[in-house]
Amino acid sequence: MNLDHHHERYLRENKFNYSNFINLEQTTYNTHKQHGDINLVIQTYPIKRPEKLEELLLCLHNNLNNKCIKKIYNLYEGHIDFFPDCIKNNEKLINIKIQKSESEYKYTHVPDFNKFNDRFSYIKKGLKNGGIDENTDKSLFANNIKDRLTWNYFITFCSETFKDDEIICLSNSDIILEDSFEWYSVSDLLNDNIALCLSRHEINKKGDVFIDFSAFKCWSQDCWVFKKSDKMKNLQNNNDFSIGMCMGCDNVIAGIFLKNKYIPLNYAFKYRIFHLDRVTKGNNNQVCLSISHDSRIMENFYNLPSAKPCPFLNYEKILLSSSKHIVTNNIITSSNCEKYEYHVH
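The chain above was modelled as a monomer; its predicted structure follows.
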């Protein structure tokens, strides 16, 4: 089989307990004389369900304890009153409220059912599962994503905040980066031609890690990592969209990188990320979308770049190639990768 070292590691140990996982009762953080290079950017938001809030706090709690992460920039939506003091006052955490001009949110984002063709019928179904249909009162959507982190807002923030060659990592708020040697030395991999677009492992509140192959796929990523450079300004996109609660944003982000001559690597067996969401995954994987869902990607899908880097490629071998053209051709895999769960190239 054509496997790299990190894929082989999975075959030897496909389930394991993440030894660095800490619970919320452990309020004393590890102090590291030297932090890694990663600037993690997330967005937190108020959650009414206590069990789901606990998961979000656990992810932030563990990322703050990760020696690979230098700083966490929380571009928060709403407020952070729900943070316990041990999180709110952590020196690694920088909380910045999203501030947009009225021109950026005065229009509403009402789903246009006429733009959902058969290919995206699951989006229409998900909205109907959430109680939204063609007859829903449009006034309900007024400023429905006013404080949401969007792609263009993120790129502008990074351009103004970070220096050249700094490592920027964007992730969903229910993701934990592994505290590992691979992540600690990730800057050795990255340059202004490479970006990581990573599929996720799953984790529970005991720290047990496994893979759900229905989500560990070429069309599903939850974390994007790249190095700041002058080239970054080209990542702005004509059609803006939210990061999270916006179906299809994963592959559009990978597509934006590819369009701007980055190689999007889904090196997910090496740079492991853990997804903690056991609460909302108990609904038979049935998509249920609310008025806070941003439908702009699906409505403008054919005007947006898209790429689907597969997590099962032999990235060790691919990266040894001296030809960027050969590398890029290997990354953009066939449609079969969408159909198969676990597979080997």
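The chain has one domain: 5-101+108-339.
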